[in-house]
């Protein structure tokens, strides 16, 4: 998995004028013994300084200063790009996994393999490590992820004698039964293509593949079309509501009022679902439904990295802090406690707090029972691409037409053509699979 050499070159060729790849320059030596430095880390995690302070107490010569910035697409990324173009910026920055290739477009990231990142690979979930690894290079340290499962209200399922659906066909049957009770099983956001992407990934889709001569796109493969047809039918048959999105005020109201029975979402959704009024003891967690015998047991939604930006003067020390923060027991526990971080990227530790039963989720030890296996049942072949956010915007625009008679199937096919055009506008080579 990862970008080919040619694809790396194509990304570098689209860099902001005046920038050069730091990865073509000699490596920066580590600080001399006794020298004191301060690393800066821009992130949208709350109270990250409290995590850094644990490191700081043990590493007096390498201090970390955390600086809060808005979420990436809410202003954080433009701030990073501006700093890079001006020759500045922090040592570390929170960058979503799906956005790593976009930063490579502007030569914005240090290849951490040049500073020994590979020796830490075994400490991380291999699927996540694959999403930051490109042709022998490592362009970010996995910081958190979002394996998926189904959060549900057992009492609502029991109104029709239902149990958590094992397959999506079971899901559709249960949804139909619940509609007879004026309950929706779930919602489907037509304004946000991210959940659809996660479902297609679970089914085995691989939309963009880097090859030696550029990118190959295949958004109309069997797996994606199966998912699009399935949710076209679910919406047409009123099995799901499209009138609100997950975690919106309307969603919380419906969940509290017993009008929506479940939500298939990422692990980080547990903290949000605890905001459902009167919900304590009324929710449980089950594995995500499967696409029959095909695809994977789970998928992923969200996930970020601690990336070292190109203008860092201390990339080796930045790497060491990032690995400590994301794999040590004290770092992971502190990020859960202070930052509400998503699922741990560590290969062997989910955090002490997540090894306990939850009163809110009916006394279930759901993290170990459901999310530990889910994290190991994800599509390992999925690759993100240089214009992921623009691609999602294109697909979401097409999905909105569902409200006025369009179809998800047509929206995906149209989006594929528009994404190909967007690639070419960036000077990137792309072709349709089989062409």
Automatic annotation (TrEMBL):
Instruction: Cite the source lineage.
Output: Bacteria, Bacillati, Actinomycetota, Actinomycetes, Micrococcales
Q: Which Pfam families does the record cross-reference, listed alphabetically?
A: SBP_bac_1 (PF01547)
Q: Is Signal set as a keyword in this record?
A: yes
Provenance organism: Paramicrobacterium humi
Keyword line = Cell membrane, Lipoprotein, Membrane, Palmitate, Signal
Protein name per UniProt: Carbohydrate ABC transporter substrate-binding protein, CUT1 family
Matches recorded under InterPro entries = Bact_solute-bd_prot1, SBP
SUPFAM superfamilies linked: Periplasmic binding protein-like II
